[in-house]
Design brief:
The chain has about 170 residues and is an alpha+beta fold. The protein has a single domain (about 1-145), classed as NADH Oxidase (3-Layer(aba) Sandwich). Helices cover about 30% and strands about 20% of the residues. The protein is built from five helices and four strands. It has helices spanning about 1-5, 20-30, 50-55, 90-105, 120-130, and strands at about 40-45, 70-80, 110-115, 135-145. The chain has a four-stranded antiparallel beta sheet with strand order 1-2-4-3, with helices on both faces. Helix 2 runs antiparallel to helix 4. The radius of gyration is 16 Å and the shape is globular. The mean pLDDT is about 100. The structure holds flavin mononucleotide (FMN). Flavin mononucleotide binds near residues 8, 9, 60, 111 and 113.
């Protein structure tokens, strides 16, 4: 599938805002992801004010680019919906990947910024949004229109040696 093949982490954006329709498509893609027992515990904070983006950019040493993005989506796991809490990371990871692939399909660029399981980053996100205990920060995805043409592009990562046949 083309969107999977050409997806890259895009960290530079051209300043154009992301349209509300596209933001909804990104969130719809996330909610279409599989989850253990169909528990659908992922929740999302849409962040687009410059002030909040700047604050969020300080949540980790590797998230400064958020300050120059038009949009960030914070992914959270709601413990109250976790029938299978041992699977929440997989569930949120699937939702995150769906957002990244949908972004490519919408001519956007995006990058996954790790939060969970690093306590300092979790605490920073928790504090910024005054999250209740039942909402666990998982990751932040920065999104925008790529500053560079072909920011999303194919890189061949096929390695036969990683495949094992029974
Ligand atoms: C769990 C996870 C955490 C990541 N955290 C960061 C991050 O904090 N900052 C960043 O710039 N990129 C981050 N990335 C993006 C990776 O660096 C990127 O996916 C990897 O280098 C491969 O490049 P590609 O996405 O272009 O294929 C993260 C990716 C994953 C899956």
């Amino acid at each position: 599938m083309e969107a999977i093949d050409i997806r890259r982490s895009v960290r530079k954006y051209n300043g154009m805002p992301v349209e509300d329709e596209k933001i909804e498509k990104l969130l719809r893609a996330a909610m279409q992801a599989p989850s253990a027992g169909n528990q659908r515990e992922s929740e999302f904070i849409v962040v687009s004010s410059r002030k909040s983006l700047e604050q969020l950019s300080a949540m980790s040493p590797y998230s400064g680019l958020i300050a120059r993005a038009p949009l960030a989506i914070v992914l959270l796991g709601n413990t109250e919906r976790m029938q299978f809490p041992e699977n929440w990371e997989q569930d949120l990871g699937a939702a995150a990947e769906n957002i990244l692939i949908e972004a490519v399909d919408l001519d956007l660029g995006a990058v996954w910024l790790g939060v969970h399981p690093l306590e300092e980053r979790i605490a920073a996100v928790r504090k910024q949004f005054s999250l209740p205990d039942n909402l666990r920060p998982f990751a932040v995805i920065a999104v925008g229109y790529p500053a560079e043409k072909e920011a999303n592009h194919f890189e061949d990562r096929w390695e036969r040696k990683r495949v094992h046949y029974e």
